[in-house]
Amino acid sequence: MQILKSLGLLVLILLLSTLVVVGCGNGDKNPDTGEVEKQGAVAVAEPAKIDFPTKPICYIIPFNPGGQSDVEARRQQPLLEEFLGTSIVVQYKAGGGGALGWTELMHAEPDGYTISGINIPHIILQPIARENAGYSTEQINPVAIFQGTPIGLAVLKDSPFDSLEDFIAYAKENPGKITVGGSGKWSGHHIALLQLEALAGIDLNYIPETGAAPSVSKFLGGHTDALFANSNDLVTHNDKIKVLGLGSEERFEALPDAPTFVEQGYDMTPSIDRGAAVPPDTSDEVKAVLEEAFVKIMNNESVRGQMTEQGFVPLNMDAEKARQHIKKKQQEYIKLLQDLGLPE
Predict the structure, then answer these.
(1) Could you give the angle at which helices 301-310 and 284-298 cross, rounded to 10 degrees?
(2) In whole angstroms, what is the distance from residue 308 CA to residue 301 CA?
(3) C-alpha to C-alpha distance for 236 and 318, rounded to whole angstroms
(4) Which CATH architecture has domain 150-264?
(5) To which H or E segment does residue 230 belong?
């Protein structure tokens, strides 16, 4: 008798289990039609997790130590290591206004273990101006764009030039005599000088360096008469210099006494945007891991606050926005060079 009761109980449990399973698959009534909708259990596959990174990542800085690209990479370094769970090795590849480093990036394995800082407009101007820059703008595979710096023209405190008007008047009377430092050729600084020459009808003597740091150092040492420099360097050395013109649309918060080029009648707003890129053909999965880490840094309020205080402009562009930004800027600079009749 006990065996029969147990068997009956087992059958009852099995029947109830069947009813529950059938009930889960039948679904609920549609409130609009009153008909039962099928809601069969659908297995949703989780995104495949890739085993990356598993070793140190090389972060190429295509300029000298101490410049803006280096400063930002060093700020990002500990955060990238935290978010990616691996060490970040900063490596300097200065030369050709950044072209040496970007050429190396183009030939690196597309496995995510080599990334590089990128600068706009350098990555646009160089392939246009040089027969063999070593890379093309279209090959640049951006992960993010995180920073901007308006470019300004500065002289030392003891300079005889107290205004842009003084500077231009002297340059007109003394063609090629004023030496002006800057970072690289066919770079943001170089194009700013070419713009000013064209707009003001003057001829300046441009002295390019391999990065912002050496150009600032030589300028402060009196080796050049003037300097095209990034906003953060102008802020850092504001007590030693006079800023004759700045490439922002409106007066820059960190340099309220510096007049813009625009307000002085020169329609130019030179600036440099910085970001990071990976080699062409890097997989979307690997790129997404790196992109997520940079997005976290760009959204970090402490990082953004530090940038602003130091004279940088925090930007926040993920990979797709960065790609669109580069394409837009490429069109703008092609037109600018055509308007200036450059390069020769």
Answers:
(1) 70
(2) 11
(3) 29
(4) 3-Layer(aba) Sandwich (3.40)
(5) strand 226-230
What is the rounded distance in angstroms from the CA atom of residue 140 to the CA atom of residue 162? 41
Domain pair 57-148+271-340 / 150-264, same fold? yes
- Look up residue 38 and give its two tokens: 């099928």
Considering the entire predicted model, what is its pTM? 0.78
Strand 141-156 with 114-120, pairing: unpaired
Q: Output the CA torsion sign for 134, 140, 145, 148.
A: positive
Residue 126 burial by Cβ neighbours in a 10 Å radius (0-12, 13-18, 19+): buried
* CB-count exposure of residue 202 (10 Å: 0-12, 13-18, 19+): buried
Name the pairing type of β-strands 241-246 and 141-156.
antiparallel
DSSP helix/strand/coil, 272: strand
What ranges do the domains of the chain cover?
Answer: 57-148+271-340, 150-264
Q: Which residues contact 301 (CB under 8 A, 6 or more apart)?
A: none
**Other residues' Cβ atoms within 10 Å of the Cβ of residue 181:** 26
CB-hemisphere CA count at 13 Å for 207?
18
The rounded Cα 272 to chain-centroid distance in angstroms is 9
51's tokens: 């085993």
Distance of CA 110 to the CA centre of its chain: 19
Nearest-Å Rg of the Cα atoms of the chain is: 29
228, 192 Cβ separation under 8 angstroms: yes
Q: Please tell me the predicted confidence (pLDDT) of residue 130.
A: 87
The single residue listed with the structure tokens 């700045």 is 246
- Give, in words, the CATH class of 57-148+271-340: alpha beta
Spans in the chain with pLDDT lower than 50: 1-47
**Which two three-digit tokens encode residue 314?**
């925090």
Span 207-242, pLDDT tens digits:
999 889 999 999 999 999 999 999 999 999 999 999
In degrees and rounded to multiples of 5, residue 62 shows phi and psi of: -80, 25
User: Cα separation of 325 and 272, whole Å?
Assistant: 13
Q: Is the dihedral of CA 191, 193, 199, 204 positive or negative?
A: negative
